[in-house]
Amino acid sequence: MKKISLLGATGSIGWQTCDILKNHPEKFQLVAFSAGKNIEKTREIIKNLRPELVSVQDEEDAHALKKEFPHIHFTYGREGLVEVATHPNTSVLVNAVLGSVGLESTLAAIRMGKTIAIANKETLVTAGHLVMEEAKKYNAPILPVDSEHSAIFQSMNGENPKQIKRIILTASGGSFRDKSREELKNVTVKDALNHPNWSMGAKITIDSATMMNKGLEVIEAHVLFDMPFDQIDVLLHKESIIHSLVEYHDTSVIAQLGTPDMRVPIQYALSYPDRLPLIGGKQLNLAEIGQLHFKEVDFERFRALKLAYDAGRTGGTILTAMNAANEAAVQLFLEEKISFLQIEEIIEEIMLSHNNVLAPDLETILHVDSETRKRVLHMVQ
Ligand code: NDP
Ligand code: MG
Q: What span, in angstroms and rounded, lies between the C-alpha atoms of 380 and 148?
């Protein structure tokens, strides 16, 4: 029985994680979870999975819930995230919270030697070197949840990483993959939220439309698999059936395929190295699909992807600045305060004026993160 802490339980990944936990009560037990502001879903998870500890974003919500569920311990805020992540009775942390707010709790769980199933890619982008250093020091396995990274991880099973020629991340291209830059000028939030293949949280859906998501994933792959940026490529593949590929020195390419369903990589991270039946999963029928399509990426068309490669190759606090600028700009776009193309303009401006610090410590990272967010708000005002 694996005992689990889950950050971001009320989100898209978190909710699907709860679904898996519910379907395999003999394998997994949810001991602690965090939510943000969605109290309706928080209640439902409490009733279905009966955890010991729950953290919410706001103090008032924690007090109100305590009255409803007196037997459960409630906490809140950033410290609440750390408390959930470091619950003494759990051995696995599933980090599905959104954004760099997940960093401190991830580090705290690593220092207890817990296994980290990580969906929260912003943490790996903003402080990948710290996370991996600590994971090595405390012997904490880091297992990918992101579908591309899970595919790479699976395609590397039993192989010698030194014999890898390159990693190929596939990209659906997001909601606007068939639009020219000219056509992107007037797109709306509603258009951007309409992803062709995946149903995900709002932020990552916008990131997919700008392709910053793939940029974050290139950095995530660099961090998780210790792979130089020159050996990480992106390939457009609009069907999202091949979740990513690994090419070896003998020209063999190994890939992982499946219908687009995030529960597959989530469950694999939980059951690894075993595989469990996926309740309600849809079998891949290639004959029915008939054709798969591939296309080279155009870095002029998808500028955010180029910015992410630049930041990755530079390293240091520019990664934190880029990630925080993106988080802040996407939020402003969702609030209809800036246009779609302004997202990448803001990121570029932040990067161009950034005073880079290499190999930053946690304090420096947290400082750059909060200063960048303030600067983005200031730029827009
Ligand atoms: P959602 O927006 O759907 O969910 C985010 C979760 O984090 C919710 O539980 C939300 O709470 C909580 N949350 C947000 N802000 C805070 C905060 N400041 N303090 C505490 N809790 C907070 O996101 P997704 O599930 O889509 O994505 C989560 C992570 O997984 C991201 O890093 C994303 O890039 C990654 N990912 C997602 C995929 C997907 O298919 N969705 C695929 C691959 C990676 P509440 O809703 O209660 O306010
Ligand atoms: Mg992904």
A: 34
Residue with the nearest Cα to atom 11 of ligand 1? 36
Domains 2-144 and 315-381 agree in fold: no
- CATH architecture of the region 315-381: Orthogonal Bundle (1.10)
The most distant pair of C-alpha atoms in the chain lies apart, rounded to whole Å, by: 63
Angle between helices 263-271 and 12-23 (to 10 degrees): 60
For the chain, the structural domain boundaries read 2-144, 149-262+283-302, 315-381
Task: State yes or no: pLDDT of 314 exceeds 90.
Answer: yes
**In contact, 26 and 1? CB cutoff 8 Å:** yes
Q: What is the pTM of this model?
A: 0.98
- Region 269-276: what's the mean pLDDT? 98
The tokens describing 7, both together, are: 């950050």
Q: Which residues contact 238 (CB under 8 A, 6 or more apart)?
A: 172, 173, 177, 196, 197, 293, 295
CA 129 to ligand 2 centroid distance, Å: 20
Please give the Cα distance from 174 to 304 (Å, whole number). Answer: 13
Distance separating alpha carbons of residues 11 and 200, to the nearest angstrom: 9
Cα atoms in the Cβ-side hemisphere of radius 13 Å centred on 103: 22
Q: Which band of pLDDT confidence, cut at 50, 70 and 90, is reported for residue 197?
A: confident
> What residues are in contact with ligand 1 under a 6 Å CB criterion?
8-14, 34-38, 57, 96-98, 101, 119-122, 146, 198, 200-201, 203-204, 262
180: confidence class by pLDDT, cuts 50, 70, 90: very high
| CATH superfamily assigned to domain 2-144 | NAD(P)-binding Rossmann-like Domain (3.40.50.720)
Kindly give the distance from the C-alpha atom of residue 170 to the centroid of ligand 2, in angstroms, as a whole number: 9
Atom number in ligand 1 closest to CA 123: 32
**Residue 73 Cα to ligand 2 middle (Å):** 34
Q: Relative to the CA of 39, which ligand 1 atom is closest?
A: 47
Please tell me the distance between residue 263's alpha carbon and the centre of ligand 1 in angstroms.
15
Q: Separation of 295 CA from ligand 2 center, angstroms?
A: 18
- Closest-lying ligand 1 atom to the alpha carbon of residue 198: 40
